């Protein structure tokens, strides 16, 4: 099982109702192993963590953020949903690298990268809402 699939399964274990929020899961009873949308979603989170470690900040192009904000609003994502994904992400990474290598520094780095990305997405979600009201 890929880490991407493992992440998606963790999300659904924590919040089974989230399935309908993901376009690539709505029509399927199982998580598609090679879905490009699923992989792209996970890659964005991983890239953010790498940027944070290398540059001290997460930098995402404005057009990407605008798109992410719009997609999250249209999918019905609410702020508490991001915490579910964060919990699933951290558990998935811990399982992938193993308990012996997992430590507070790694947990904090991934958590911070995720939080920075989420704050930027939330800002775009608010902008999208403001533009449509």
Automatic annotation (TrEMBL):
Under Gene Ontology molecular function, one entry of this record is: oxygen binding
Domain of life, per UniProt, equals: Eukaryota
Is-annotated flag, keyword Transport? no
Please name the InterPro entries in this protein's record.
Globin, Globin-like_sf, Globin/Proto, Leghaemoglobin-like
What's in the keyword line of the UniProt record?
A: Heme, Iron, Metal-binding
Among SUPFAM superfamilies, the record links this protein to: Globin-like
Question: Where does the record place the Globin domain?
Answer: 1-126
Q: Which PROSITE patterns does its entry note?
A: GLOBIN (PS01033)
Keyword flag Oxidoreductase: no
* Family assignment from sequence similarity: Belongs to the plant globin family.
Q: What does this protein do?
A: Phytoglobin that reduces nitrite to nitric oxide (NO) under anoxic conditions (e.g. during flooding or in waterlogged soil). May not function as an oxygen storage or transport protein. Has an unusually high affinity for O(2) through an hexacoordinate heme iron because of a very low dissociation constant.
Q: State the protein's name.
A: Non-symbiotic hemoglobin class 2
Species per Swiss-Prot/TrEMBL record? Gossypium australe
